[in-house]
Amino acid sequence: MAAVGVAGVVLFNVLPVSERLGMRLDETAAATSNDSRLALYAQSLTAVRESPLLGHGVPIEASNPIDPRVGTQGQIWMLLVSHGPVAAVAWVAFFAAMHRRGRRRGDPIGVASSTVLIVGTVQLLFYGMLSYGLPLLMVAAAVSARGPEPEPTGVVVP
Fold first, then answer.
1. Rounded Cα distance, 72 and 144, in Å
2. Residue 105 — φ and ψ, nearest 5°?
3. Alpha-carbon distance 152 to 15, whole Å?
4. Structural contact between residues 85 and 77, judged by C-beta atoms closer than 8 angstroms
5. Rounded to whole angstroms, how far apart are CA atoms 99 and 76?
6. What does the pLDDT average to over 20-41?
7. pTM higher than the cut 0.85
């Protein structure tokens, strides 16, 4: 175990890891991507207040023309802006209910499907789910909704 630690320290000092890490931290501090994302979140919440029941139907233009459209910085933000808070709450409640069903199964498949649902629900804040994530979440929800496999009875049906 000590050899692994020593090898890690040697590699860290030999390779330009510390230099690249420092450059990355400097770029992150200077970058405005986080500020831009926070501004889009604030604009999303303002848009929700403007149309709280049904939303706007689509993501709307940002106040800064360089920024992406408001409601495109995560699935939950798209739901809030496009369809309103009722739809967003229903969306999250569906996946929470499927998570609870999967957790109650008690078998490894139920645990795996409920874990996928929890991870996917957390990712709703940051990632869009329509292209790849939503089909995976729906498969996990279907597996969670399905009960555990029945116990074999010993009777062979020809």
1. 29
2. -60, -40
3. 57
4. no
5. 18
6. 67
7. no
